[in-house]
Amino acid sequence: ELFGSVEPLLPSLREDGVAVWVLGAGPYPPGVVALQELLDAASEELEPEDVWEPEDMNDTCLYIFTSGTTGLPKAARVSHLKAVMCLSFYELVGASSSDVVYLALPLYHMAGSLLGVVGCLGIGATCVLKEKFSASQFWDDCRAEGVTVFQYIGELCRYLVNQPQRPGERQHGLRLAVGSGLRPDVWRSFQRRFGPVRIVETYGMSEGNVTLFNYTG
């Protein structure tokens, strides 16, 4: 459904040697790779390791967009090693395979895709993907899906605290919230209003090589 935005750029992308892959039914212009057809035709058998294993774990795995904290949004290089390290994110913050993780962050950022989705793969947890965050629907979603872990950016918690109070706000299974940018006043208000949810605040950068975890609360 987003291909129309890219189509006018195809000639210049081809000149620059940029491949365009699209999911979904075609037809597409020449030079565009329709992934769904290839997936449907692909064998269930895994290729030998030397086909898919990186020669060097520090080689580029993918490019991911930063939020633009130091300027306009830009693509940051993520190595295979860094992507693999994200598999252990939820284990580091105290989640396990029995958890159900609620994720409403954009998947073109590192927090949503690598820490969120890849982190769930790393521990074998269930991931509940929400297309767009809704403060008014959040607790209903948590109850309906059996959510136990919530990954946030600080503003999401503020949106929840600023919602009008409603019955049943403390009737949920959420035990852990993990993310970045939660102000101390919102932190206290969140726990006072919604119950003793453990909060683990983290800080890192897509293009950085150090991550901080506030284990002590």
UniProtKB/TrEMBL annotation:
One of its GO terms (molecular function) is long-chain fatty acid-CoA ligase activity. It catalyses: a very long-chain fatty acid + ATP + CoA = a very long-chain fatty acyl-CoA + AMP + diphosphate; tetracosanoate + ATP + CoA = tetracosanoyl-CoA + AMP + diphosphate. The keyword Lipid metabolism applies. Pfam families: AMP-binding (PF00501). Residues 48-211 form the AMP-dependent synthetase/ligase domain. Keywords: Ligase, Lipid metabolism. Coiled coil: none annotated. Transmembrane segments: none annotated. One of its GO terms (cellular component) is endoplasmic reticulum membrane. The keyword Ligase applies. InterPro entries: AMP-binding_CS (IPR020845), AMP-dep_synth/lig_dom (IPR000873), ANL_N_sf (IPR042099). Belongs to the ATP-dependent AMP-binding enzyme family. This is Long-chain-fatty-acid--CoA ligase. It comes from Cettia cetti.
